[in-house]
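Moderator note: this is an archived Q&A kept for reference. The question asked for a predicted structure of one protein chain; the sequence and the answer are reproduced below.
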Amino acid sequence: MTFSLVAMSRNGRYQAAATASCSLAVGNAVPAVAPGVGAVVTQAYTNKSFRHLALDRARKGVPPARILKELSGLDEGFAKRQVALITSAGTTAVHNGVDCSPWAGSLEGNHFVVLGNLLAGPAVVENMAEKLREPAQESGSVAGFARQLMSALLAGQKAGGDMRGQQSAALTIADNDAPDTSPPELLIDLRVDDAREPLVELENLLELWLVDHQSEPAETQVSSARRF
């Protein structure tokens, strides 16, 4: 019912989770990112507690594959879940439950995981992975990384995306130089909760964010503090 990704920039500075779905407010249920710790998405028959549990274990240095194994022991419905995790060290793991709604699957690459369920077909995750394997538009910058993630979501939608249609999307990026606080201090946290073309609107929001921040000094951009 959702297609998502977790990823880290190639210089290790930024990590992210991004998602799109034909469900209301997917950004409220699926992704979570903690600076210097990791990023996780939990979907299909979503167990939202996996976000806290996975990041807490990653914070303690537990490898992603072991984290997923531990989660399986805590959840009788694990066969219905999809979960992907990346740590600040760039290590990844993914679980595709055997009872996820077809088509369901995932691909892992260098510093990323793409996954989805109830999709139009495997081309959704294949197209997303292809975009994430390309050189970033602006190497080492948050702008280049964010635009690459956005292009991956758009590529997934172009391949059919969620077979039910579109409704919401979200993009979350953390700077690994930021402190690990609760709630997390995020660099980019953009959501479209209900729209006919949520990814188009999300892309517009991202470009507005980049324009708003392009003149700020680098030391200010480490913090997510805004002028309200």
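Archived answer notes: Strands lie at 2-8, 14-21, 31-34, 38-44, 81-87, 92-96, 105-109, 112-117, 168-175, 188-192.
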